[in-house]
Amino acid sequence: MTTEELVTELKSVTYDLMSLLERESNELRSLSSSEYEQFLSEKSALSMQYEQLVVKLRSRGEELRALSEEEREELRELQAEFQEAARRNMITLQSAKETNERVVQAIVRAVNEKSKEECTTYNRSATTSKASLGGYGRTMNKSGGSYSVNETL
Asked: Residue 4 burial by CB count (10 A; 0-12/13-18/19+): exposed, middle or buried?
């Protein structure tokens, strides 16, 4: 494949990747889990293809310098646009992740508070009493127990 063909392919992959990042950022709130998995799969494939093309082109420095100034300038502008699209996408994903973490933490706090309020046990004299955190007279750690959250983002 010639350097010119590699540059053309890199441009095409970059445009596709930028378009995908923009769609992901715009649709993140309304995507179902399976739709988001499809985005991740497509993004992974395009990213790998992009990286392979960049590595190939880097090894052809002399040929790249031989391209017209117009072609090289277009490539530089495209790379700058791509970097900006990737930055915006990263901010959107980070915001979504932080929001999800806050929601999970709020749920855990609510569950802990509710369990402390309503948990009762029977004692030896067959009367009810407030349960200790660990039950059977044992206390658990101060955090109120452990929780596991499956995070995928």
From this structure: middle
